[in-house]
Design a protein that fits this description.
By secondary structure, the protein is mainly β. The protein has no helices and 22 strands. The chain has a domain at 128-217.
Amino acid sequence: MNDQASSHISEAGDYLYYLADDDKVYRILKSGNEKASVVIDAPVWFYQVYESHIYYTDRNITTYKPTNLLRMNMDGSNKKVLGEGVSIHFAVQNNNVYYETFSKSGTFLNRMNLDGTEPKKITELSSLFDFQIVEPYVYFGYKDIWEMLIDGTGNVKKINKDVNNPLEFIVDQDWIYYMEGSSSADIYLYRMRRDGSEITAYSPNNMRGFNIAGDWIYAIVSDPTKFL
């Protein structure tokens, strides 16, 4: 569909949106009948398509630290800063934006409205590199994949002791899909149930990223000839 190296793919209507290696977000018709066009020209850490908007974190190209969480229309117009000084990762769902902030005491999970109003600190986590909200739980990654109630109550549960340093994960319905590997040339895609059972490995072994949209898994690989 395109030959650009990509790290995150989303589906919305007739379009696929993807974050390319030049740190810009592009969109292209799923049919492939149109040349990809730039939607976000600024350096981007992470983005998410939700309803009629794109949410994303930009970054300082000198320090590579995230600076702002922004929202804009699907065509790139009407940009608005929702929060400043946030971390890379965030999640938009159920009419809320969940996002990370840091302080000397730890890492905090926060929530605000879609327009950036009413920001609220939910709970403190010792550390995390990624998280996903599946109410009433938050799943987060730090050396393993963990589950806890979103309000911070109850015990923190490790999903499976055999999962080791997952590079990326997605919770989709009853399954958790995740990438794991010891080197850039030996990274596999796995899936397991949300209770940690039924771990299955997928081809290929040269994964660079993936996303799930509808019934499809979009795989980003370093060598497409090794996909099967």
